[in-house]
Design goal:
Radius of gyration of chain B: 23 Å
Structural class of chain A: alpha/beta
Distance between the termini of chain A: 15 Å
Number of strands of chain B: 11
CATH topology of one domain in chain A: Peroxisomal Thiolase, Chain A, domain 1
Largest sheet of chain B: 8 strands, mixed
CATH superfamily of the largest domain in chain B: NAD(P)-binding Rossmann-like Domain
Structural class of chain B: alpha/beta
Strand content of chain B: 5-15%
Shape of chain A: globular
Radius of gyration of chain A: 19 Å
Order of helices and strands of chain B: HEHEHHHEEHEHEEHEHHHHHEEEHHHHH
Strand content of chain A: 15-25%
CATH class of the largest domain in chain B: Alpha Beta
CATH class of one domain in chain A: Alpha Beta
CATH architecture of the largest domain in chain B: 3-Layer(aba) Sandwich
Strand order of the largest sheet of chain A: 3-2-4-5-1-6-9-8-7
Order of helices and strands of chain A: EHEHHEHEHHHHEHEHEHHHHEE
Largest sheet of chain A: 9 strands, mixed
Number of helices of chain A: 14
Distance between the termini of chain B: 52 Å
Oligomer: heterodimer
Strand order of the largest sheet of chain B: 3-2-1-4-5-6-7-8
């Protein structure tokens, strides 16, 4: 890194959708503007005002279809009038849009064109029924493949991956790991008041999971709905700043995380994944980010990974080198990724537990890592091993197409 | 003529009515699904929606579109495979829209019944009037060269009478849906000695395709469902009149309604059920059934009086309950009609005193909506009613009499050979009336 870059002042709205007590699909709900404003102002209030901000970046995937609204950079002025007539743009890379928002801010700071960047990610998806939401989210794949795809296109893609994983390593073996992944997600989400599954009170999560067998007649062949992230409305925001920026906003390094490495790689969207039981782009991006940071995965104390589906969680464990190919299920089932395990992952519930407002997820991951490394995670706070002062986030767009990997260190 | 061919040209008479619209929806979807089978490509499928009301037909088409949309959204996974060959249909949205079109293009709304002259199957769902039914069937049959089949939705008129008077021997059967047909799983199937095996088999296949539970009933006025309900209702009315000898009638109606709902753990009390079906409909069905019954007078002066006063119950087109014996606010009972004063009396005026008079429920009481989910019904209701027998309260006494009477009605339906067996009676009451336990049981011995 040619210049020190920090993140601080993270903020999450509630991830709204089924599971939250206050969610009623029949009643009208806050729209896109509300979420952008809430997340933006949530950051602004922690940094001494919007006048300190040089630039705003909004990560968003498909507001153009979910909300009939494009051009989200134009909403910066709604957060605070001081942001008007300053740089503001929106970035899109499917469910990796939030990660691109972070990368865009990091680059601006590195390029010395900004000292303080407001990075946001937002999606409001409960505007349509899930069956139509599936159409919209399918835009993360190549449209030429939509016709032959599943009604629930993305669950279909990862169901296919899961099917190959079962075939190769055994159905019961794999389901055991996926079940534990789901249980961890719920248990972690219950500790974060903004999580979509915060109100989840199911006593026997494992029993519930095992009762629901994948059923291709009503959903997809190899996943049940508990293997999937839900439909969410939500936004997250974080400030990306230089050392000078930290001084400007009056925040100490102890309350910030330092960005020590990052990578953003993109696979050819028109090709099928080279290996159905490997998330190859994640593997390469994580390796590149760790290399840039000059550390190994063993030094990472907590990870936020893109578990849009439980199988994606297992494949990420393998891609990150925490377990060998085919051993991810075992690694997770043994509890290594749980909040008290050797490498706690998705400590506020991840996409399955906290929620997955698609364009907001990448930023939410950064906020969680910032909270954990600075001791601001509230009830969800994990005990960090002082020998492992690093955090890692993996944000994925499409079927392992756009990947953002970022390495964080306590400030 | 095979199953698919039979369903190529169908008419629904009374299509804009509550029952007709549901029958039309189910049939339209079934016909559309047949039309989409590769072997039926190029064949025409026609479903005439016949009704006297232009306004009703306009509303019917709105209802159809909204309902087909919901159905399509639930079976999109399957629809994508059906339309796999259509390169122009890519997103779920495209596929759902196409399916709605494919259903709606089959349906022809009209006020002209002559279109039924070309049908090979006619559903009759006009009002419960024997002479009207006979007249329509006769007219269609005399002008229809196809020896068409008639499926009548009558809930009370014996089928053999329609058969004889309309001169459609062997080609008519009772296919009695429950309200609303699109939701209720139960169909009572009634054949006459002349009904052909082919027609009966078709009816079974058609019901199965729509996911219905078929209970065969013999051809006695009222069949199983109304055979039980009408007698059960009359028992409730008479219990109320008995109580009213010592208390005002509205209080008696309130108490019998409460006992039949809470003490007997039913989805609604008997007076609410009468209101739901319609005081007019209940009176009418009793009138249709009564001449066919021996040693029994299925008639209520109280129902006649309510009709004279124009208090009919039934539902608004929105589905909201109209006031009848009881007055409703947002679905909840708030007052009871007093036929003498011709006004509604608020239940808050007498509720506490009546509840105290009836006495408490057994401790094992579980409300109906939870009780229906209990797997081992005997293990719950056996001890529940056994406890009731030890309670020396008026409420328990009325409930036990009620339960015993309901059981006797069920057994009589079997003895009179209306139902083939006890199980069929229980299936009708469990499925068609959503009771939590069958009327024929051992709880009230």
């Amino acid at each position: 890194m040619r210049r020190k870059v920090y993140m601080t002042a993270g903020f999450n709205t509630i991830s709204m959708g089924t599971g939250r007590k206050e969610f009623n699909p029949k009643k009208s709900r806050p729209g896109l503007e509300h979420y952008i404003k809430e997340a933006g102002q949530g950051v602004v209030s922690q940094i001494g005002g919007a006048a300190h901000i040089d630039e705003t970046v909004v990560g968003n995937f498909m507001a153009a279809r979910f909300n009939k609204q494009a051009h989200l950079g134009g909403f910066a002025g709604l957060i605070a009038h001081e942001l008007e007539f300053k740089p503001s743009l929106s970035v899109e890379g499917a469910c990796g849009s939030g990660g691109l928002s972070l990368i865009s801010g990091i680059r601006s700071v590195l390029a010395e064109t900004a000292e303080v960047v407001l990075s946001l990610g937002v999606e409001v998806q409960n505007t349509v029924k899930a069956i139509y939401g599936a159409d919209i989210l399918a835009g993360a794949g190549w449209f030429a493949n939509r016709k032959k795809g599943h009604a629930y296109f993305f669950p279909g893609q990862f169901s296919d991956r899961a099917g190959v994983y079962y075939e190769k390593y055994g159905f019961d073996y794999a389901r055991k790991g996926m079940c534990r992944w789901f249980v961890n997600a719920m248990e972690n989400a219950r500790l974060d008041p903004t999580a979509q599954e915060y109100h989840n009170t199911v006593e026997d999560l494992e029993g519930l999971y095992n009762k629901m067998k994948p059923n291709g007649a009503s959903f997809v062949d190899h996943l049940n709905v508990l293997d999937c992230s839900k439909v969410s409305d939500g936004a997250s925001g974080i400030a990306i700043v230089s050392e000078e920026g930290l001084k400007r906003i009056g925040i100490s390094k102890a309350d910030a995380v330092e960005i020590v490495g990052f990578a953003q790689l993109t696979r050819n969207i028109t090709l099928d994944p080279p290996n159905p039981v490997e998330v190859t782009t994640i593997k390469m991006a994580a390796a590149a980010a760790l290399r840039n940071a000059g550390i190994s995965i063993d030094q990472v104390g907590t990870i936020e990974t893109h578990d849009c589906f439980s199988i994606a969680g297992l494949l990420a464990v393998e891609a990150l080198g925490l377990a060998e190919a085919g051993k991810g299920a075992e690694f997770v089932a043994a509890g290594h990724t749980s909040r008290n395990g050797s490498i706690p992952m998705n400590t506020t519930g991840g996409l399955i537990g906290w929620g997955h407002p698609t364009g907001g997820t990448g930023v939410h991951q950064a906020v969680t890592i910032w909270q954990q490394l600075t001791g601001k995670a509230g009830n969800a706070q994990i005990m960090l091993n002082p020998q492992k002062p690093y955090g890692l986030s993996i944000n994925m767009g499409g079927d392992d197409v756009t990947v953002v990997a970022i390495v964080y260190k306590r400030g | 003529m095979n199953y698919d061919e039979r369903l190529q040209h169908v008419s629904v008479m009374g299509a804009a009515g509550k029952m007709g619209s549901g029958i039309l929806l189910l049939t339209a979807v079934e016909m559309a699904d047949l039309s989409l089978k590769p072997e039926n490509k190029g064949k025409s499928f026609v479903l005439n929606a016949i009704d006297l009301s232009d306004e009703g037909l306009a509303g019917l088409m709105d209802y159809m579109r909204a309902q087909v949309l919901k159905i399509a959204e639930k079976k999109t996974v399957w629809l994508r495979s059906v339309y796999a060959g259509r390169e122009d249909l890519i997103e779920n949205y495209d596929i759902i829209e196409q399916y709605i079109n494919d259903v709606m293009r089959i349906v022809r709304p009209t006020t002209a019944m002559e279109v039924a002259y070309r049908s090979t199957l006619v559903f009759e769902a006009v009002s419960e009037n024997k002479d009207l039914k006979v007249k329509l069937l006769k007219q269609i049959d005399q002008n229809n060269p196809h020896k068409t089949w008639f499926f009548t939705n009558t809930s009370s008129v014996p089928i053999h009478i329609i058969e004889n008077e309309a001169g459609v021997q062997g080609r008519v059967l009772g296919f009695h849906f429950y309200n609303p047909p699109a939701v209720q799983k139960l169909v009572e199937l009634i054949v006459t000695p002349n009904t052909t095996a082919e027609a009966r088999q078709f009816a079974l296949d058609y019901a199965k395709a729509m996911g219905k539970v078929v209970v065969p009933s013999n051809d006695f006025a009222g069949f199983i469902g109304n055979g039980h309900f009408m007698r059960d209702a009359l028992h409730g009315i008479n219990e109320a009149l008995e109580l009213a000898k010592n208390r005002p009638l509205p209080e008696a109606i309130y108490m019998i309604n409460k006992v039949s709902q809470d003490f007997l753990v039913r989805p609604m009390g008997i007076f609410q059920l009468i209101d739901y079906v319609g005081v007019d409909v209940v009176q009418f069905i009793m009138k249709v059934m009564n001449p066919h019954l021996q040693n029994e007078d299925l008639h209520s002066d109280l129902l006649d009086k309510m009709m004279e006063l124009g208090v009919k119950g039934g539902q608004h087109s929105s589905g909201a309950q109209k006031d009848g014996f009881l007055k409703y606010e947002k679905g909840a009972v708030v007052a009871v009609f007093d036929p003498t004063k011709q006004t509604y009396v608020n239940i808050t005026d007498f509720q506490a005193g009546c509840d105290e008079y009836l006495g408490k429920l057994p401790e094992a009481f579980v409300p109906w909506k939870n009780a229906v989910k209990i797997k081992d019904k005997d293990a719950h209701f056996g001890p529940y009613f056994a406890a009731m027998k030890t309670m020396n309260t008026p409420g328990a006494a009325i409930a036990l009499r009620y339960g015993r009477n309901s059981d006797a009605i069920g057994r009589k339906l079997v003895a009179d050979k209306v139902a083939h067996n006890e199980q069929d009676v229980n299936t009708v009451m469990l499925t068609g009336f959503f009771h939590a336990y069958g009327p024929i049981n051992t709880y009230f011995n």
